[in-house]
C-alpha cells in the first residue's frame, strides 16, 4: 500500500493482485492535483485496484467533511481504470455541488470544497440536476432477513426497507452487482 499525506489531503493507493509501480504512483498523484487544490488536510482519497482475470477495477473513495463519494471503473489497464474512475468522480462532484449548496447544508467542509471548485464547475447546467418526482409512503413490517429478501424479490426491486424483528431498527436489504445481497443496518 502506498500512502502519502500532503498539506492538502491524505491520498492512498492499495493494490489487490496489482503491483502499484512508481509510474502508477506518479501518474495518480499528478492526476489528483486538480482535486487536491480544493481539499483540506482532513479530506481523504483512496484508490483501490483489484485485478481479476484480465481486467483491473479501480475504486475511488473520497471523504469530504464526513461525506463519502465513491466511483468505480473496470478495464484491462490500471492507469486507464484510474483515469476513468477519476473522471466519474469529478462528474459526480459537479452533479452534487448544486444540490448541496441549494440545501444550505450545514457542513462547512462541503461548502468550502464546492466553493473552491466553483470555477471548474461553472459550465454545469441545471438541466442535469435530478428532480424528485414522486413521494411514497408505506407501512413497514417487522420481519427477519430471509423474509425481507423474499419480499424484495417478489416486488422485483433492487432494495427493500423493513423493520428488523430482532433489533427493532429499520434495515435495508439490497442487491449487489455479483448477484449477492447486502444489508444496511441504520444507526440512529
From TrEMBL:
Q: Name one GO cellular component term.
A: cytosolic small ribosomal subunit
| Source superkingdom | Bacteria
Instruction: Give compartment(s).
Output: Cytoplasm
Q: Which Pfam families match?
A: Ribosom_S30AE_C (PF16321), Ribosomal_S30AE (PF02482)
Keyword check for Cell division, yes or no. Answer: no
- Single GO term (MF): ribosomal small subunit binding
Q: Which InterPro entries match?
A: HPF/YfiA_ribosome-assoc (IPR050574), HPF_long/plastid (IPR034694), RHF-like (IPR036567), RHF/RaiA (IPR003489), Ribosom_S30AE_C (IPR032528), Ribosom_S30AE_C_sf (IPR038416)
Which intervals hold domain Sigma 54 modulation/S30EA ribosomal protein C-terminal? 129-183
Q: Which UniProt keywords apply?
A: Cytoplasm, Translation regulation
A biological process term (GO) from this entry: negative regulation of translational elongation
- Quaternary context: Interacts with 100S ribosomes.
Q: What does this protein do?
A: Required for dimerization of active 70S ribosomes into 100S ribosomes in stationary phase; 100S ribosomes are translationally inactive and sometimes present during exponential growth.
Q: Which family does this protein fall into?
A: Belongs to the HPF/YfiA ribosome-associated protein family. Long HPF subfamily.
- Record HAMAP family: HPF (MF_00839)
Q: What is this protein called?
A: Ribosome hibernation promoting factor
